[in-house]
Amino acid sequence: MASNSNREFSSNSVSMRISGNLNSKRKAISSDGRDQMPPPPSRENLNSSSPSSANTQTVASNFVSNEGTPNEGTPSPTSLACASKKVRSEVWVHFVKLKDDQGNETGRAKCVYCSKDYLANSEQGTSGLWKHLRDTCKKFPNKKEFVEAYKSRDKMQKILNFQKASESEKSKLSCWQFDQQACRDALVKMIIKDELPFRFVEGEGFREFIQVSLPMFQIPSRYTIARDCYYLFVQEKKKLHALLTSQCQRVSLTTDTWTSIQNVSYLCLTAHFIDSGWNLHKRILNFCVVKSHKGINIGNAIDFCMDEWGLNKVMCITVDNASSNDTAVQQLKKKLTKKNAFVLGGEAFHMRCFAHILQLVVKDGLESAQYSIRRIRDVVKYVRGSPQRLEMFKKCCESANIKSKASLQLDCPTRWNSTYLMLESAVVYQKVFDKLEDVDSKFLGEFGNDMPSEVDWTKARNLTRFLKRFYDVTCKISGSLYSTSNLYFPEIMRVLKDLQAFQSSNDLNLAEMGRMMREKFDKYWGSIQKMNVMLFIAVVLDPRYKMDYLAAKYKSFYSENDANDLVTRVTNSLRALMDEYKGNEQVGMGGVINPSNDVEDMVADEELDDYFIEREKEQSLVSKGELDRYFGELPEKYTHDFDLLNWWKVNVVRYPILSKVAKDVLAIQSSTVASESAFSTGGRTLDRFRSSLTPTTAEVLICCQDWLRSSSKPIQLEETIEDLESLESEITQDPEIVESVMPRTRVDC
After folding, report:
1. Predicted confidence (pLDDT) per residue in 342-393, tens digit
2. How many CA within 13 A on the CB side of residue 186?
3. 428: Cβ–Cβ under 8 A, 6 or more apart, which residues?
């Protein structure tokens, strides 16, 4: 019997329905935890006068046909006495073991429905009895459900599994069994998350790995994988749409454009919002083709994407400083005005990217140091030009006793942050470059008098300290999984403070750089009229800052009148926002109650109207007092690890209207980095080996990856030199590897 346990299946739903006809509703729990039907009643129960005996008599009577006459061969209570022996299989609900005249078991069992008997000894097992119920017996009730339950049964024994579900979770013991569909779904997610080509499933190495680790898994073709990716995209899109509909008041958008290796222009539209649990979300909505980078085409594409997702309430859209984006925002503004999609009449709809403005500011400052930067760039480029030069450079590092393991980085001249990283890595090796002149004759002949001088290296060190502050600010403000709108104003003031210090520096080069950067700074951030009011409101809604910080900080750099104007503007805008949100809440609750036109009920209606009018006035006063109460309380203690969203989550009850405003304002993004990062994924997805991917497939892979990935960390496809050197150092400590591999690596070719 035990040898056939895997061939039996749990037919709980069917057995319960049948057992209802048999009027036997007791259950027993099997050894593996599944519900089983109870064994047939014994002779003692049939003859007893207890309440259970009546139930058993009913069981026997239910074996009678609808005409009221016993079926041919219907088992009697005598033949049911075989059930006194404990049985383990559910099949004995439908069969009874037969005995001879002496009461000995004959090794046969009879079906309680059609009375056909079969061999049923311990050697025979129960598979024949199950097959009879499934295929042969015509009187078996609910046969269709029985067969479906058989087909969907678990055929395999479960295996204990002890491993982590993810890096953040602890190891736990669980049961596992092979599931072809589950493995196929996981394979599709792996293809999307890890940016693998569809042909990966047809690779020789992957097939060998599956053959060893999971030989029962049927590997799908690349066409099936591509089809499954589309299906998964549709499912995840429905989930995201439901999330936006149910838990989102307004969304803030970021967008940017990009041209792929296929020479196709793409637009990435990303939504940012805070859900009902006060969790900040970043989701790529579309990665679609646009005709060109012209503003009208960009505006039309964004409007189409918003209609596709049903987004009718937008807080802000963050774009870079390109003139085409200004045109796109104006185009979009005209269309959304008709839908009443804005707050404050669309005054705060257009948000300029902090990182792009800062890049323009720093770029102007670097103009005065371009000559020194170019010289250092050239020597770095020379060293990285061949393996022999890099090997010679490493030997010079050893002789110069330089312990740094940082690799030389070559910058992109149009990106100041890469220039900063290049200078930071190069200034450490100044002595090495000087020593390289004596070791490598070609090095000196390559540059001659155009070698970096001591003045150039001094400028580079000063420039590194100078740029580090702007680099740190850019990294801080470019996050997408924490609120950055409340950081915008404090970081701008920090940049302004640094620029003033550089302008007053004794170093003429730094002073000149500070002056040029201050001119560009004032062009975009020089007055409150040039800045989006939402940036100031976000600071006020941070309980560590509030209005006093805003006024005091602005007054330290500008006049007192300017600070007072700023306070007035922010206060009026915040009160207008609260009035809008309060009005929307009333509309959502059904609007204001209109007086009845029935003359007979006029008196009663007037009394009700007076009541509701007074209540509305009280609520209006409470709303106004809510903002005053918030400003009247002392600010929270400033800490770097302060959880702003959790603070508002806890204080929703105290500030019901103001918290709704904070939920949308704090979701505004200060930079377009969230959308630009999608182009890094796009560049890897649409590389020169996969350039034949269609735009629709590219959107499926990029959007679905963003929706599926639980981690916000970018995929690290290339290991750093430090990691590789550490790995090589660890591997070469193995004597066997040193003996068999290392000698070959030393052979000069």
Report:
1. 888 888 899 988 888 888 888 888 887 888 888 888 888 888 888 888 888 8
2. 8
3. 402, 404, 406
- By C-alpha distance, which of 670, 644, 53 is closest to 357? 670
User: For the residues of 343-372, what is the DSSP string, one character each?
Assistant: SGGGTT-EEE-HHHHHHHHHHHHHGGGHHH
Q: Which two tokens stand for residue 614?
A: 């007074």
The two tokens of residue 586 are 């009333």
Contact 396, 435 (CB under 8 A): yes
What are the DSSP calls for 464-476, one per residue?
HHHHHHHHHHHHH
What interhelical angle do 602-632 and 546-555 show, nearest 10?
Answer: 50
- Residue 163, strand partner residues: 172
Question: Do 659 and 577 contact (CB within 8 A), yes or no?
Answer: no
Size (the chain), residues? 749
- Angle between helix axes 430-439 and 387-399 (nearest 10 degrees) is 110
Q: What is the model's pLDDT at position 730?
A: 67
- State how far the Cα of 521 lies from the Cα of 360, in Å rounded to an integer: 9
Q: What is the pLDDT of residue 429?
A: 86
Give the type of residue at 262. Answer: Q
Residues 417-445: pLDDT tens digits? 888 888 888 888 888 888 887 777 777 66
Angstrom distance (rounded) from CA 328 to CA 349: 12
- For residue 25, list its beta bridge partners: none
Query: Rounded to whole angstroms, what are the CA distances from 389 to 339, 382, 407, 728?
Result: 63, 8, 14, 20
How many percent of the chain have pLDDT more than 70? Answer: 72
Q: List, in order, residues 6 or more apart from 46 with CB less than 8 Å away.
A: 53, 56, 57, 60, 77, 80
Q: Do 668 and 534 form a contact (C-beta atoms < 8 A)?
A: yes
Distance in angstroms (rounded) separating the CA atoms of residues 302 and 309: 11
Q: Distance (Å, rounded) from C-alpha 273 to C-alpha 281?
A: 5
Question: 64 has which bridge partners?
Answer: 70
Q: Across-strand partners of 288?
A: 267
More confident residue, 493 or 510: 493
Beta-carbon contacts of 357 under 8 Å, excluding residues fewer than 6 positions away, are 321, 524, 525
- Give the type of residue at 516: M
pTM for the model stands at 0.70
Q: Cα separation of 554 and 493, whole Å? A: 8
Closest CA to 347 of 548, 601, 132, 536: 536
**Cβ contacts of 255-258, under 8 Å, gap ≥ 24:** 255/298, 255/302, 255/317, 255/318, 255/319, 255/672, 255/675, 256/319, 256/320, 256/672, 256/675, 256/676, 256/679, 257/290, 257/293, 257/298, 258/679, 258/682
Query: CA–CA separation, 42 vs 293, rounded Å?
Result: 85
How far CA 379 is from CA of 366, 421, 422, 441, 445, in Å, comes to 19, 15, 11, 14, 12
